[in-house]
Amino acid sequence: MLKRQAYLERIKPFIDKDIVKIITGIRRSGKSTLMAQVRDVLIERGVSEKEIITINFEDLRYRSKTLESLHEEILNQYSDSRLYLMFDEIQELESWEELVNSLRVTIDSDIYLTGSNSKLLSGELATLLAGRYIEIRIYPFSFKEVIALSGIDKPLEIERIFRDYIRFGGFPFIHRNQLDVNSALDYLEDLYNSIVLKDIVHRYSLRDIELFEKIMGYLMENMGNTFSSINLIKFLKQDRRSVSNETIYNYIAYSEDAMLMNRVGREDIKGKELLKFQEKLYLTDHGFREQMFGANQSDINRVLENIVFIELLRRGYKVRVGEVGDREIDFIAVKSDSKEYFQVAYILANASLVDREFKVYREISDNFPKYVLSMDQNDFSQDGIIHRNILDWLLE
Fold first, then answer.
1. How far apart are CA 55 and CA 67, in angstroms?
2. Per-residue pLDDT band at 255 (split at 50, 70, 90)
């Protein structure tokens, strides 16, 4: 089993601290596995297995219990020593916030949660805990993790694995089991349907499932493009379907809550202001797009852009799209007081393409690092602008 060390290192400083650790992420991204690895860390530190209580709320035995009965069941296992409480897919339990907060203040406990809905942190929990929680957002496997799992270090084999990664994304099950093409696509289809049905259709009581799926298909096909509700409305009219702006933005919000999609705002670099209604959408895992359209290789530019965007999130950056006059910079990545700029391209095949990707940076006067990432092996760095091979950058 691949140890997800980067996430563990983020959790370790908070072990045995009076702060609830909340591991969030899209379904099947490895939250339960990570929590099991945290459990292993606790045992290595001398915690007895009897002091660790793990409950998966996708198990109907627990969801059918009342808060009071669960509370009493846990209290009955408490003596003088600290209990380590690990609650998996906690959003499946109604009013779970009350249970967590009561246990936190009633007994000596160290609490870990996982959940597949971003609204975990926007409701009553935030009010009840008042800053006493930390979110650790996890994602499907990075390319670096896929290579680590494979144990391969030969350049040609790494390139072959990357071609598969472009098509099928990073969900752990695919790579742990080395699924073939058809099996990988079947798994992605079943997972996508599960997310849509469990985390969106049922949760938000959607009636027109066909309309929702058409909108999701349009957004996936156009990932990385500037989003326009007008264009989407025109697209739906071709099928004689009508939809309001409110419904479109509600559906986008639902997909964000289910951690299926990520909305990215735009920043005017020179004017230093955020621009409204010029957002982009990226998938948490680009494999869904291959499953739906089979076009990741032919649309490799936007898939590479999606891969770089999610990798920046993995590395802890806050990300926006940049705008300089009438030119666009793919990503502005900010962490603490540092900032980095990124342009993403497939191949810099000629001088005009090189000039296009590098020229926009000449409009920016600050001294923060500026990168152009592509699949080229030749180094086109110039004028202080750094060119990197995408695979090298992903494997840093």
1. 13
2. very high
Instruction: Convert the pLDDT of each residue in 159-205 to its tens digit.
Output: 999 999 999 999 999 999 999 999 999 999 999 999 999 899 998 99
Query: Which residues are CB-neighbours of 244 under 8 A, at least 6 positions away?
Result: none
**At residue 272, what is the residue type?**
K
Nearest in space to 7 (alpha carbons), one of 43, 31, 28? 31
Does the pLDDT value for residue 326 go beyond 90? no
pLDDT tens readout for residues 351-362: 999 999 999 999
Query: Side by side, which strands form the sheet with 52-56?
Result: 52-56, 83-88, 109-115, 20-24, 133-137
Domains of the chain from N-terminus onward: 5-137 (3.40.50.300), 208-394 (no CATH)
Q: Supply 169's token pair.
A: 């994304």
142-146: long-range pairs with CB below 8 Å, 24+:
142/170, 142/311, 142/314, 142/394, 143/170, 143/307, 143/311, 143/391, 143/394, 143/395, 144/394, 144/395, 144/396, 145/2, 145/4, 145/170, 146/170, 146/175
- d(Cα 396, Cα 394) in Å, to the nearest integer? 6
Q: What pTM value is reported for the model? A: 0.94
Residue 312 near residue 182 (C-beta atoms within 8 A): no
